[in-house]
Amino acid sequence: MTEITVSLAYERAGKGVPLILLHGYPLNRTIWKDVIPFLTDIADVIMPDLRGHGQSPNPEGEYSMETMAADVIALMDSLGIETAVIAGHSMGGYVTLALLKYHPERLIAAGMVASQAAADSPEKYLARMESIEEIKVSGPAAVTEGMLARLTRKEDILPELAGIISAATIWGLIGTLSAIAKREDALAWMHSIKIPLMVISGAEDLINPRERSADIVRSSPNAWWVEIPGSGHMPMMENPEATGLALRSLVATSVARQDK
């Protein structure tokens, strides 16, 4: 089945290996801005707003990780990028997994940032469905209240995060949350990933505990783990230098592998 894609808004900076950074739910591309200075001399950094987020279209209805991945491929095609390093934060990590499964030839290395590979438990699935109903009634406020304190303990970035979430649209929130709830369990096939896979986690992450990162590393023979100190679920904002240097090493690893 041909995916009906949307044209993603994006920012671009630097020169070198294409590096596509995918944000989490319900955020946008601006979460990456502080890691950019550590990357632009070696990477052509592309930061899209995924469908339903930021300045990208937010079509009505359910989304899927496969469709969101197809949007990224369409962006790569429009920019003339054949292959790239792709790293995704939280929900962006789920999109990265869909890219690894359905478009593996387009990635030369991958990163999972504060993300996981397992599907939702039945209880978590039901909780997401309840959240969708709350969003229909209360809009983004239904997300902001319960999520902010779990994203980070650093009070200085809370206003920025609150502003990003409050600007989200109801259809974008509902469509994306449905895609997250119905995503596949990737742990069963991660052993087949042939490219370098970096797992980046925050040492104090309240949403994605460290055992989820350990599951990915155990499941994929080409995976390794970088834990970012002093960070929760938003390591690119909480400790941008350590996160930027980790992503830099992922790009360098992809270059070294290609040179062999």
| Order of SSEs | EEEHEHEHHHHEHEHH
Portion in helices: 40-55%
- CATH-defined fold name: Rossmann fold
List low-pLDDT spans: none
Supply the CATH class.
Alpha Beta
Structural class: alpha/beta
Shape summary: globular
Our estimate of the beta-strand percent is 15-25%
- Reported CATH architecture: 3-Layer(aba) Sandwich
User: What is the strand arrangement across the widest sheet?
Assistant: 1-3-2-4-5-6-7
User: Can you count the beta strands?
Assistant: 7
> What is the count of helical runs?
9
Description:
With 260 residues, the chain is of the alpha/beta class. It has one domain (10-259): 3-Layer(aba) Sandwich (Rossmann fold), CATH 3.40.50. The chain is 42% helix and 16% strand. The chain is built from 9 helices and 7 strands. A 7-stranded mixed β-sheet has the order 1-3-2-4-5-6-7, with helices on both faces. Helix 7 (210-219) links the parallel strand 6 and strand 7. Helix 1 packs across helix 2 (91-102). The longest helix is centred in the last third of the chain and has 20 residues, at 240-259. The protein is globular. The mean pLDDT is 95.
Main attributes?
alpha/beta; Rossmann fold
List the helices and strands and how they pair.
Elements: E1 10-13, E2 17-22, E3 43-48, H1 65-79, E4 84-89, H2 91-102, E5 107-113, H3 122-138, H4 141-151, H5 158-166, H6 170-181, E6 197-202, H7 210-219, E7 223-228, H8 235-238, H9 240-259
Parallel strand pairs: 2-3, 2-4, 4-5, 5-6, 6-7
Antiparallel strand pairs: 1-3
Helix pairs in contact: 1-2, 3-6, 4-5
